[in-house]
Every structure is written in structure tokens, then in C-alpha cells.
What does this fold into?
Amino acid sequence: MSDLVEVLIIDHLTIKHAGEIFNPDLEIGDFMNFHSYLKECHMEIEEKILFPALKKGRWGDERWFFTKIDQLISDHRLIDSMVQNIVNWYRSGEMGMVIEHLPLYFNILVDHNNSEESYIFGRWKMISDDERFSAMNEARGVIKNFGLKRYLGITGLSEGAFMYMFGPEPAIEKQVA
It folds into this structure.
């Protein structure tokens, strides 16, 4: 089984690659589907699993570190509002604004992801093994809620790679009546 941060790094590579090839003339649905993945999978995993687990730790620089996490969460809100603007411009026929802001959206995403990799991800290996294992199971649930086929389609991962990274489906304990 892989580590949660390794999964997020693969997401970061997906995001970077998408920014290099995304065509603003494509149907807006493709862009909205990509952003749904970003918001409902990637950001969800960071905000509901990674960041809270890291905020439980004692690092010696908690004030700075927790402020950095809060800034990254604020970035997520900024990125989401940019998407709303891009979609609105697209729908109102303001393609000049879309063409101007789409690369900015991806540049901000890449800069944001670089900050996570530089300031946040390195601390993940200091979290307990039990917490890291539990985080992978929670992340699997987030991805399944989003839709495994959609996730695989956007990231380019095969089902085999997904199974390698996440391991076998956790057994559900049967309740005895």
C-alpha cells in the first residue's frame, strides 16, 4: 500500500500535466469535470484527512505550521472562486477572459501544490503508522464517493495501479445481533 502523500503527489502531477495540455476551446464540461475531481477528491482528501491529522501533531513550530495549513485551505477557496468566474465568462461568451484566466488558474494550482510539497508533505511520515493506514482507507472512500472510473479517467491511473496504491478493499466487520 502506498502512502497518502504519494497519492497526493500523483494528483499534483495530474494537475500539472492537465495545465500543460488543457485547451480553453474544449467544452466547458471537461473543465468542470476536472475541477470537480480537484474539489471533491484532491482538496477533500487534504482538508478532511491530511490537514486535520497533521494539526494533531506537535511540531515545535505549530503556530507557523498551522497558519500555513490555513493559508493552503484559503487557496482552495480562491481556486474554487476562480473556476466559478471562468465558467461564468465561458457561458456569457467572454472567451478572451477564459483564455486569459485559464493558464492563471493552472499556474496558481501548481504554485499552491509546490507549497504543499515544500512545507506540508514532508511531515506526513512522522505521523503514526495507524493514522497513515486509516488515512488511506478514508481517502479510498472519498475517491469511491467521487466515482472510481471518473478518478481513474482524470488521473490516468489504471485499476491495477489504484489497487497497488490503496491495497485490497478493507473488510467490513459484520455486526452480531
User: Anything to note?
Assistant: The CA atoms of residues 40 and 76 lie 11 Å apart. Confidence is low (pLDDT under 50) at residues 172-177. The radius of gyration is 18 Å.
